[in-house]
Fold each of these.
Amino acid sequence: MSDGNGPNAFKVHEIMIGRTRFPSNVLMAPLAGYTCFPFRLMAKRLGAGSAYTEMVSADALKYNDRATSKLLYTDERETVKCVQLLGSVPTVFERAAKSDLLAPFDVIDINMGCPVPNVVKAGEGSALLEDIPRAAKIIEACKRSGKTVSVKCRLGMNGQKIVIEEFARMCEASGADMITVHGRTRSMMYDGEPLYEYIRLAKESVGIPVFANGGIFSKEDALKMAEKTGADGIMLGRYGFENPLIFAELTGHECGDTKYSLLLEQLELSSEIFDEFYVLTYIKKLASYFMKKMPGTKQLKADMYRCGSVSELRDVLGAIFKGTEYAD
Ligand SMILES: Cc1cc2nc3c(=O)[nH]c(=O)nc-3n(C[C@H](O)[C@H](O)[C@H](O)COP(=O)(O)O)c2cc1C
C-alpha cells in the first residue's frame, strides 16, 4: 500500500524485528477478550504481519490454569507467534519469558499502556510510564530469554505528563527490539484523535522500529497515521476486529473472502480447538462487530445472542448475512 505521493508515503514491506521476520508492517493489536488463536490466524492469512495474544498476567503463568492456557493456545499453523505479558516485577517477567509455557512464542511484547484502574493501581500497564527504571529492568529481564522483545506503550499518563521521548530512548537502551506507540495518553483511554506528533517524536528519537497505533478506522486513517508519524509500520486495534478484510486491502493480499465466509471459517476453526461455550461467546462477539455498520440489526442481534448451540448459531448467521453485501 502506498498513496503514491510524498516522501512519507506508506509502503507495505516485510520487516525484521530483532531476530524475527514479520511478513508485513501492518499488525493486529492485542485486544483482551478478542485476539484468540483463530482470530490471529485469520488476520495473518489476510496479510497482517503479526497478531498478538491478548495480555496475559506474567504472574498467573505459574498457575497454568485453563483460562491462561486458552489465551496461550497456539500450534504449528501460526507463524510469528507473539505473546503479550502484563506485570510489574522484573523477576516474574524473566521467569515467565523463560518458561516452557512460552517456549512456542517468538516475540514477547510487554504491556506498558493498559489504562484500566486496577491494572494501574498494581503498578502494571501504563503505570510503568511513570516508573522508567522499573520498566527498563522488565525489558532487560525479558531479553534474557533470548526472544525478540517489543514494548507497547502510551504517550504518558496525561497531557501534562507526556514522557514518550525519554521512554522510547529507555526502551532502546534496555534492549527492546521494537516499540508500538499508542498515540494517546492514559487519561484519553480509547477516545480522541491520536497525537500524531508525539508518535513522530518517538520515531525520531530511536533507531529501532517504531509502530504507530490508535484511531485507525479506515484505509485513509491508516495512510494518514503513516504519513503524519513516519512510523515503520502501523498496528490496528478495534477496526482490525471489526473488519479483518482491511489487512488484505492494506497489504494487497488477494483473497476471495467476505465477512460471512470469515465467520464460518472462524466457527469451524474455533470449534476444532475450544469448547462450545467459548465458541459461542467468541463468534457472537465477532459477528456483532461485523454487523456494526449493518442497518436494522437490533432484532437479528437479539436472535443471535439467544443461540445456545453452534449449529443453531450457524443457521442464524446464515439468516443474517446471506443475501447481503457481507456475503457477496
Ligand atoms: C476491548 C479492548 C481490549 C484491549 N486489550 C488490550 C490488551 O490486552 N493489550 C494491549 O496492549 N492493549 C489492549 N487494548 C488496546 C489496543 O491494543 C489498542 O492499543 C487501542 O484500542 C488503540 O487502537 P485503536 O484505536 O485502533 O483501537 C485493548 C483495547 C480494547 C478496546
Note: The radius of gyration is 19 Å.
Amino acid sequence: MSDVLVIGGGHNGLVAACYLADAGLDVQLIEAREELGGATTSKEVFKGVGARLSRYSYLVSLLPDQIVTDLNLNFETISREISSFTPTADDRGLLISRKWDERTEQSFSTVGVGSDAKAWQDFYGEIAEAAPIIAETFLKPLPTREELRRALKPSTFSTLFTQPLGRSLSERFRSDLVRGIVLTDGLIGTFTDAFDRSLLANRCFLYHLVGNGTGEWRVPKGGMGALVDQLVARARTLGVKISPGVRAKSIESGEVFVEGSDHQMIRLKPRFIVAAISPREIDRLMGRSSHRPFAPGSQLKINMVLEKLPRLRSGVSPEDAFAGTFHFDEGMDEMQRAFAEASAGSLPRQIPAEIYSHTLADRSILDADLDKRGFHTLTLFALHTPYQLFTRGNESVKEEAKRRLLHQLNSYLEDPIEECLAKDEDGQFCIEVKSPFDLESELGLPEGNIFHGDLEFAFREESENLLWGSETRTENLFLAGAGARRGGGVSGIGGHNAAMSILEHLA
Ligand SMILES: Cc1cc2nc3c(=O)[nH]c(=O)nc-3n(C[C@H](O)[C@H](O)[C@H](O)COP(=O)(O)OP(=O)(O)OC[C@H]3O[C@@H](n4cnc5c(N)ncnc54)[C@H](O)[C@@H]3O)c2cc1C
C-alpha cells in the first residue's frame, strides 16, 4: 500500500507527486493515456516534419518561479518585447510593446486610438501594482475575500472582482479595438458575455494578468513538453512509481479500482488520493452525478507549420506582427456578436481569434533542416466556438470553422496563408484543428473546458470550509488539477497546494 496515489499524469499530478515524494512519502502515479503531460505536451504532429509543436497549451505565465526552484527543474521561459499586433480593416494595425514606449505611443495615434493611450497606461499600471500582491498568495492557504479587498486599492478590487469586465472596459476606453484587445484576456477558453454578472470574464482575466507577479506570458524554451520532461525526470529521481496506460475506474470507500492496458482490474487502498483530474471525472469515479454546472470549452486551436511567414497588407513586418499575440476580429463588439451567435447555436459568422509564433522566440523545437530552411510554427486560438456546436458533426463543423478563420486571416495578409503552409511527406498541408470535442475525447477535458470547469476567484468566502482550495468532501481525497481553486492553466499551483494540504495533515 502506497502513502499516496496520484490519479492523472498531467503537469499538476506530476508537481504534486514530486513535492510529496520529496517529503519522503511513497507515491504512485497513474495516467490513463500512454503519454504523460495531459494538456502540456509537445509532439511532432505532421508526418516527416521535424517540428515539435506545443500541441495544446503553449505559453507560460502562471507557473511560479518558486515551483521551478523547489523542484530543481531545468526549465526556461523566454520573454518577448512585443505584446500584440492587431491589424485593422483599413490595412493599418496597432502594435503594442510589452512595456509602454514611443513606438506604441505612435501606433496608438496612427490607428486613431490615441485618446486611449493614457487610459491604457493607467489601467495596466493599476493591475501591475495589484499583480504581485495577488500572486504572492497563490502558494499559500487561500486569503479571504475581505483580506484581499483590504490589500488592494478599492478601484482595482472593483475592476477585478466586483464589476463585470465589459462594463469597466466600456467606462475606461473609448475605442472598441482597444476594449477588445484588453477583453481577450477575459475570454481565453471562457465562454461568456463580457457584461455577465457571473463575472466569469473577470475570473479568467485575473489569472491572465497576475502570473508570477507580472502577468507576463513567456515562451517555454523547447516547447511545453520540455516542462513535462523535466517533471517526469524529477519524479522518477525522487522515486515516484509512474504507471502510464492505467485508468482509475471508480473510487469507493477510500479504495481506488484501476484498470491497466491488460484490462486487469486492481484495487488500491492508498492513505491519500491526489485527484489531478477534473471535478467532473471525480464525480464520475465516485458514482455521483455532477453537481457543478460550468460553461463549455469554447476555443478552437489550429496548429500550423509554415515554410515562411506571410507578409501583411499593413506593411508591418511579419517578425513584429507575429512576435507577440496577433489579434484579429477581436473588437469588443465583434466578440459580443460572436458570443450571441454561438449561444444561439451557430458558428459565429466572424470568429474572433489570435495567433502566435513559437519559432520567432525559440527555434529549438525545429530540427536542423527546418531551422536552416527558415520554417516557422503558428498557433491559432479562436474564441466563442463552444463544444455543443461540434457534437453535431465534429469534422464538418471543424472544416467550416477552419475555412472561415483562414478566410478572415487572409483578409489581413499580402501572402495567403495557404501559400506559406509547409506540406508533410504525403503532400498534405501541415495544419491540424483541435475542437473542444477533440479535447474531451483525447485528453478527458470535460466538454473541452481547458480549465476543467469554471475558474474561481483566488480567495475564499468566510463561509467556505477551504484552506488550500484542494480539500474535497472526502477526507483523504485532494483535488490537484486545474479545477482546484487557483489551479487553472499551466501553473502547477493545483499540484503544489494539494501536496501542501496533505503534508499539513501529516504534520
Ligand atoms: C488547446 C489548449 C491550449 C491551452 N493553452 C494554454 C496556455 O497557453 N497557457 C496556459 O497556462 N494554459 C493553457 N491551457 C490550459 C492548461 O493547459 C490546462 O489548464 C492545464 O494543463 C491542466 O493541467 P492538469 O494537470 O490540471 O490537467 P490535464 O492536463 O488535463 O491532465 C489530466 C490528466 O489526467 C488524466 N486522467 C483523466 N482521467 C483519468 C482517470 N480516470 N485515470 C487516470 N488518469 C486520468 C488525463 O489523461 C490527463 O493526462 C490550454 C489548454 C488547452 C487544451
Note: Residues 7-13, 30-33, 38-40, 56-59, 62, 247-248, 276-277, 281, 301, 434, 439, 443-445, 450-451, 481-482, 488-490, 494 surround flavin-adenine dinucleotide (CB under 6 Å).
Amino acid sequence: MLSIIELPRTISKLKYEEAELFKRFFDVKRTTGRLVIPDEMKPWVKKTFGNIHRVENKEIIKVFNKLTFETAVFNELRAKRPIEAKSYESDNDVKEALNKSVGGPFCTPLRMTPSDTFGRIKGKYCVSASNVAKYDGLHGLIIFNKHNPLDFNEKELRDYFKSAMNWFKKAYKNNKKAAYPFLLWNCLWRSAASIIHGHFQLVIGEGAHYAEAEYYNKIRKEYYKKYAQDYFSDLYYAHEIIGLGMRRKGLRIFTSIVPRKDKEVTLIYDKFKFDNSFVKAVYKVTRSLVKDFGVMSFNLGIILPPLNKDEEWKGFPIIARIVDRGNLSNKTTDIGGMELYARTNIIGTDPYKVFEKIKSYF
Ligand SMILES: [Zn+2]
C-alpha cells in the first residue's frame, strides 16, 4: 500500500500531463525533523515508538493547496501508527454518557422542542424542529427518533436526508431570499454537539452562501477562466492519479491530502439531490469510519448549490465532507494554535489507510 510519507515518490512517477495537473493544485515538501535522544530517555522512546533512529530522524510531509491555501502536515511516526479501532461500545464513559442523557428534550421533540413557523417535517424515523440557539434566520434540526447518534442504518439515514431536503424546500418557500443551504451533522461532544441525541442541523444563507461555499465558487470560476476546466473535477482527478480517489455512480469520493483534520473523506456529487446513490455512499463512509476506525465523534458538512437557480452557481456540485474529531474520552481537543492561526492542519492518520478501507465498501 502507498503511504502519504511516500507522496513525493508517488508524484515523481506520474505521467507528464498528470504531474502538470497535480502541480496546478499542490506543492508537496519533504523535510526531516532531527533530534538527539539522551540515553536516559532511550528505553521510553523504544517502548513508545519502537525505533530510536526513526524518532531521531523523522520524515515530515507538508502539502499545500496553492489555490485555496489549505495546508496539511503529516509526520512519519503518526502516519505509520496502526489504527486502533476502538468501539464506543467498549468505552464505559461514553456508554454512561449516552445512557444518562436518555430522556432529554430531543427524546420528546414534539413537546420539548419548538417548531418552525411553517410547521414540522415529519419523516418515518425523524422529525424537524426549530433550533432554539439559531445562527441564522432559518436554522432547523432533523431530530432522529433514535437517541444514540452512532446507531443508524441506511434506511434511517435515507429518511433523515429526505426530511432535510423537504425542510430546505419548505424554508426556502417561506423566505425566497434564503436559498443557500448547508447541512451539518455534529455527532457527539467533541464535534461541538451540545445535545446528546442524534440530529442534523440545517441552515440557509440569505442572499449569499456560507463563506466556505462562496470561497469555493470564486476559486472554481477563476480556475475555469484559466484552464477552461472544472475545479472540482480536476481536484478529484489530482487525488485519483495518486491512488486516493474512486468514481461510483456519478459520485467522486476521495481522501484529501489537505484534510481539515483526521480521516477526512470528501464526496462530490453532480446530481444536486440526496438520492439513493448519495445516501448509500454517505452511509458506507460513516459506517466504515465508526466500525473500522473507531470514530465516535465526527463533523459532516454538506454544501448544497442554491435552491434559486442562481446563474453564478451553475454547475456547482454537492460537496460533502466528513472528519473525525477524536476519542470522546480524550481531554485535549484536536484543534490548536496551528489550525486556528497558522491555517495549518496537523494530521495524525495516513489518508491512504483510510482510502483503502473505505474503498473496500464500494
Ligand atoms: Zn434522546
Note: The pocket of zinc ion is lined by residues 102, 104, 106-107, 147, 197 (CB under 6 Å).
